[in-house]
Amino acid sequence: MLFLENKITLINNYLKQDALYDSRFQPGYFINTIAQTAAMQSIEGNDKLQYLPVVYNKQAQEYNYIGLDDTYPIIIYHKHLQTTYVDLELNERKETNKMQLVVFGRLDALNLDAETLGALVVTGFPSTIKKNDYSNLPIVINAVTLTDAQPDAMAVFAKEYRNTAYQLGPQHALMLFGYTIESTYNRKCFDICGCLGTEN
Hints:
The protein is an alpha+beta fold. 20% of the residues lie in helices and 38% in strands. The protein has helices at residues 4-17, 107-110, 114-124, 153-160, 192-195; strands at residues 29-30, 36-41, 49-57, 62-65, 74-87, 92-106, 140-150, 172-186. It is globular, with a radius of gyration of 18 Å. It starts with a helix and ends in a 5-residue tail after the last helix.
């Protein structure tokens, strides 16, 4: 699971520079930290635990809840589901990260419908990452591949915000995209301890 946050930052940058470059997407909240699901006491006045997406704030050393509100016209975050490995020749290893991209959009602020927003994400999502964009990392990113999409806002909300009353209206879009990142690296060519502090 090497340099995952570097990888998702690159993907976010490609999206911002390509399909989501327009001023209507600013100030967007493109989260460059891997999100995870956390159990929290209900904020709705009952005894049920809620399971909500959070990201770790390294500066504050605390976890921040990713809320869906009117603060930003678009919110994008990434989740890491699984990593598989294949050992190749001469100490080279292939790593495949199975990921999810979650996109929340305020359609009224963006002046878009949900289908168009989803199409923009799909067309702007990179299939390759230029080596010049990550020349400081001792890996090769071979491919970034979109695999599937879930455009149903209610289904995505139920998955990402479990035990939470549905809060979205027709002016909101919430969609989820599955994707993989395939990288290779020579496991003898760098010190893993030195790598741990390089992710932003």
